[in-house]
Amino acid sequence: xxxxxAAPAILLTIAACSQPEEAAPPAETAxxxxxxxxxxxxxxxxxxxxQEYADYLPLSYAVAWTDLDSDGADEAIVHVVSPMLCGSGxxxxxxxxxxxxxxxxxxxxxVSRTPIAVMESSSNGWKDIAVAIAGGGGPSGSxxxxxxxxxxxxxxxxxxxxxTAAAGNQVLAEEPELIExxxxxxxxx
Length: 189
Description:
The protein is α+β, with helices and mostly antiparallel strands. The protein has one domain. Helix content is 17%, strand content 37%. Strands 1, 2, 3, 4, 5, 6, 7, 8 and 9 form a nine-stranded antiparallel sheet that branches. Strand 4 and strand 5 (126-133) form a beta hairpin. The longest helix is centred in the first third of the chain and has 17 residues, at 2-18.
């Protein structure tokens, strides 16, 4: 009798194993499956500055967006103001180009002041820029900075920077509206 009961059980087991499995129902679309909206470029700059100048917070900065290399994407010209970064000659100005989700420095210009202008002329495929210089015992005026194929000059008071009387398109005014970056706002990013 046991053999008679075992045979149907074996057949049921074989039949169950040979049946194709039903496809699992599609999973509900979860919120985490949806990619978050990319952060704005202003938030990206704030995050970059918080990392780059972590030891110098709080600081203030002004940013101008302009296409310097004619690729259709704007680069950022960022003038950074902080008692720990500025001296009698001026403050730091960065020129940042998008590098995927990050930024790469194509200019880290010391002792610069506003106004900052983008010129009609270009060098090595990038627009020339002019920054104001004054103080520190050197000449005052506007220094022309030309892209060398890799970066803009780091010091506008010495060659290869040169004094210029040419006016360009002013992108940061003499007294730009500054954005504050404090340690507590930097960590919120």
